[in-house]
Amino acid sequence: MGLSVQFAKRFPSGPVIEAGFELALGRFGLTVLFGPSGCGKTTVLRCLAGLERPDRGCIRAGDETWFHPDRKHQLPADRRGIGYVFQEPALFPHLSVAGNIAYGLGGWPAPARKARVEEMIRLMGLGEFAQRGPSEVSGGQKQRVALARALAPRPRLVLLDEPFAALDRVAAEPLRHNLRQILQALGVPAILVTHDPQEALALGDRMLLMAEGRIIRDGAPAELLSAAGAAQEAQLGAVLRARVAGRTEGLLRLVVGRVELFAPDPGGSFQEAYACIRGEGVSLEQGPHGLLSQRNRIAATITGIEPLGALKRVRLDAGVPFEALITAWACADLALEPGRQVQALIKASAIQVIPIEA
Amino acid sequence: MDWEAIRLSLRLAVSSALLLAPLGVLLAWPLAFGRFRGRILLEAISSIPLVLPPTVLGFYLIVALGPRSPLGMAWEHLTGSRLVFSFQGLLLAQVITNLPFFLQPLVASLGGVDRRLLEVASTLGSGRTGVYLRVALPLAWRGLLSGLILSFAHAMGEFGVVLMVGGNLPGKTRTASIALFDQVQSFDMAGANRTALLLLGFAVVVLACTAWLRSRERAWA
């Protein structure tokens, strides 16, 4: 049985959000819906959940129609059998941790309900907090409760809307580490919304790359992110597959084609890694240069310049594609235009390194 | 002190609060969360007793409940007695008069409930009724309690509508505030003072309770 999604939703004075993909139900698989903030990822999730109504298209799960505009049919959220985890845990403040987890088990016989709640509490490592109120547990534990609550009724599909976004790194890391194992153990397919390439690569089996309201690519996360131009299309800067050429003073020396980059060493003994470079971290200069604090200086050719709000996106080629986001004023000042040679300066700290385990 | 009138007022206030609770809970949902066209009209109609002079409301209630009205005739046919100038007629009038005092704090509390919690509840299999009864209403309990207390207190002291619909029949429709009016009319100022003080003390306690509930609601939020 599969989920077939093809719909569009228009917001008043806003962009049109379109989505079209198929997804297998009934077995584990983690699909990452990946794209920059504001590109419509959450809208896609909300339409799938039945919390928003698309304008046109069709959503089917097996023989069941979830949305069909001609028949004015919209299956309510409570009858879709999906679990939804928001950015914020959104726990019911009047119920205990165990009460929150049991919420969706209303129709279950009491012994089965009790057993399921205990199973979820054990699986999420929430044993000692079961009887506490939501205000008495930490942010990371709250999000575990939210996940347990969504998974307890055995949903056909679980939708995770940036579930780690509201957590600090220390709280997010253990949950991120466990998420895949938990979903796999329960055999639940999931769609995870994120704009963090590290999260997408670490967790996803499949990636739907979204930009400006549309799904522009569909494939394996590693292949998609390192495919030439894919990350740029999604306004995520560049994700480059690099070889580790050396390690020195907490920095990695990475080689991508003929380009050498220095980036912070996250630790570990990997030999290959993805280097994620966001356009905001790249500055440009022309002509002779003096001494600078930037570790990375790369000679590149401008391949294109596009307006992006108050900024300009300057597409660059140095044997590998990447980009710089600079002000329109700076762009005019440097008389930048396609075909011109420039020096791209990248702070080492602006490069995110994602190890590729052998 | 006219204890019979005070007892009647209490009986009337408790009964009207008991009838108002289910009716108000039913009406509060569309007012707080409804997206239908007539919502504003429903809100306006349910608030009319707040702004209409009690005598005007009382007059229309006499017309609506009187022996020649369909409701009055049906009641007389069923029970053999008239609805106006009876306790039952008074109770019905009180429910209508006090409806906005119950609805307004409840609707305000429901409006303050985090929408995401309602959305989560619906993804967990709760239909509209389930979402309302299991999440929205428990989280708006202070508004519910405020509404009950306010409508109860208002029913205790209502004068104009009671006089119009119930008249002044001792033991039947003479409430505490009408007894106070009678005491003043017959120059029993000491008796009037005692009745007024009792009603004043009651009002202060009620307002203190609702103010405390509101402050707790802010703390919860």
The ordered H/E elements of chain A are EEEHEEEEHHHEHEHEEHHEEEEEEEEHEE
For the record, the count of structural domains of chain B works out to: 1
Number of domains of chain A: 2
What's the overall average pLDDT of chain B, rounded?
88
First-to-last CA distance of chain B? 44 Å
Subunit organisation of the chains: heterodimer
Query: Beta fraction of the residues of chain B?
Result: under 5%
Secondary structure tally: strands of chain A:
21
In the CATH hierarchy, what is the class of chain B?
Mainly Alpha
H-E order of chain B:
HHHHHHHHHHH
Determine the N-to-C terminus distance of chain A.
34 Å
For the report, how would you describe the main beta sheet of chain A? Answer: 6 strands, mixed
Low-confidence stretches of chain B: none
Can you walk me through this structure?
The complex is a heterodimer of chains A (358) and B (221). Chain A is an alpha+beta fold and 358 residues long. Chain A contains nine helices and 21 strands. Chain A has helices at 41-49, 97-102, 110-123, 139-151, 169-186, 197-203, 221-226, 230-233, 328-333, and strands spanning 2-10, 16-24, 29-34, 56-61, 64-68, 73-74, 82-85, 157-161, 189-194, 206-211, 214-219, 238-248, 251-256, 259-264, 272-277, 282-285, 296-308, 311-317, 321-327, 341-346, 351-356. In chain A, the strands form four sheets. Chain A has a six-stranded mixed β-sheet, with helices on both faces. The mean pLDDT of chain A is 87. By secondary structure, chain B is an all-alpha fold. Chain B has a single domain (3-220), classed as MetI-like (MetI-like fold, Orthogonal Bundle), CATH 1.10.3720.10. Chain B contains eleven helices and no strands. Chain B has helices at residues 3-33, 39-51, 54-65, 70-79, 87-111, 115-123, 128-139, 141-157, 160-166, 176-185, 189-220. Chain B is globular, with a radius of gyration of 19 Å. Chain A binds chain B through residues 49-51, 76-80, 82-84, 86, 88, 90, 92-94, 103-104, 106-107, 149-150, 153, and chain B through 114, 116-117, 119-127, 130, 134-135, 138-139, 220.
